[in-house]
Structures are given as structure tokens and as C-alpha cells.
Specification:
9 helices; transmembrane; membrane; cell membrane; UPF0056 membrane protein; Multi_antbiot-R_MarC
């Protein structure tokens, strides 16, 4: 049960559903309820397809170009750490991505689906949390279900975006985003250390 909760918190941190709400509001400002619902459904649907692609094909692509998973885990951990530090010390996720709305035409895809929901960190997490060498197909299915459950939360928050935003405000979303960044940074460091240990462990055996 604790492992399931840890996986849920991990995906919640990298996807950051609450941080997506201000981005969605900025994207759909002035639009009617029907259009907002359509954008929310499309954005979450595209995000689910992108993340499931990385679950199914991410490791296969790495093997095809002869990159060991431990190296990807280290690199992924570093990227996650940089992503987390930018959430903590730089502009928060909502502040950064709202700026990109001004030049966006297909708003459901960019910046909502990518990079707000299916962020680079989420794509890396999808691969790292479903490694074929460490997890059975059943465990990968459970992890994928947890990831999709976080996306369902994203969809619900987007559909209730106006009410959520009134409740927490821009400052509340910024604070939550930074807290998620702190959690994510600890996960990233753990991935880096795990990748290093796994890499040198394989080297010793060889």
C-alpha cells in the first residue's frame, strides 16, 4: 500500500495538477463553458496518450540505441532535479507556462497537454517507474493506472478550474507548485543514487 501511495505522490508531483489550473484559466479566458470542457478533455486525452507511449515504448527505444537503463535513470534524475529546482527557486510552473499562452494557437496541445500536464519530468517518470527489468507487467499496469488516476484528477480540476482558482488563487497555486518541487527534488536525488548504484553493480558483475 505504501508503494502505491509513493507512486501516486511521485506522479502527482511531476504532473502537478493544481499548477495546471492557472494555465488552463489563462488559456480559456473569455471562452464559454462548452469550449472549456472540450479543451480540458482534449488536453488530458493527449497527455494520457503521450505518457502511455513512454510507458510502452520508452525502454524499447533506449535498448534500440544501446543506452543502459541505469544511464537513463541517472540522466532522468538530473533532469528531474533541474526541473524541481526550477519549480522551487525560479518562476513556478503556472507563472512560466501562462507566459507561453500568448503565442499559442492550439491551446489544448500547447501549453496545456505539453509541457504543462505531460511535462518532461512526467515522461521520464513514466519510463523509470515501469522498467521491464524491475517490474512485472502486472506491476507496470498498476503503475500506469495510478498515473492515469492522477490525470483524472487533472481533468476534474480543469472542469472545476474557476472554483479551484477562486479558492487557492495564483499565490496558492505557486506555493503548492514549489512544495511539489521540493518533493520531486528528493525523488530525483534518489533516482540518481539508485542509477549510480545499479550501473556500478552491473559493471562489477560483468
Amino acid at each position: 500500500m505504501s508503494e502505491l501511495l509513493a507512486a501516486f505522490i511521485f506522479f502527482f508531483a511531476v504532473i502537478d495538477p493544481i499548477g495546471t489550473v492557472p494555465v488552463f484559466i489563462a488559456v480559456t479566458r473569455g471562452d464559454d463553458a462548452k469550449f472549456k470542457r472540450k479543451v480540458a478533455l482534449k488536453a488530458v486525452g493527449v497527455s494520457a496518450l503521450v505518457l502511455l507511449f513512454f510507458v510502452l515504448a520508452g525502454e524499447v527505444l533506449l535498448n534500440a540505441i544501446n543506452i543502459p537503463l541505469s544511464a537513463f535513470q541517472i540522466a532522468g534524475g538530473i533532469v528531474l532535479l533541474l526541473f524541481a529546482l526550477s519549480m522551487i527557486f525560479g518562476e513556478s510552473k503556472p507563472e512560466t507556462e501562462i507566459k507561453s499562452v500568448r503565442n499559442s494557437t492550439e491551446t489544448a496541445i500547447f501549453p496545456l497537454a505539453i509541457p504543462s500536464i505531460a511535462s518532461p519530468g512526467a515522461m521520464l517518470a513514466a519510463v523509470l517507474m515501469t522498467r521491464n527489468t524491475e517490474y512485472t507487467w502486472y506491476e507496470q499496469l498498476i503503475t500506469s493506472s495510478i498515473m492515469l488516476s492522477v490525470l483524472v484528477i487533472v481533468l476534474l480540476l480543469l472542469l472545476l478550474a474557476t472554483h479551484v482558482h477562486k479558492l487557492i488563487g495564483d499565490s496558492g497555486a505557486s506555493i503548492i507548485s514549489r512544495v511539489m518541487g521540493l518533493i520531486l527534488s528528493s525523488v530525483a536525488v534518489n533516482n540518481i543514487l539508485g542509477g549510480i548504484a545499479h550501473y556500478f553493480g552491473l559493471s562489477v558483475v560483468a
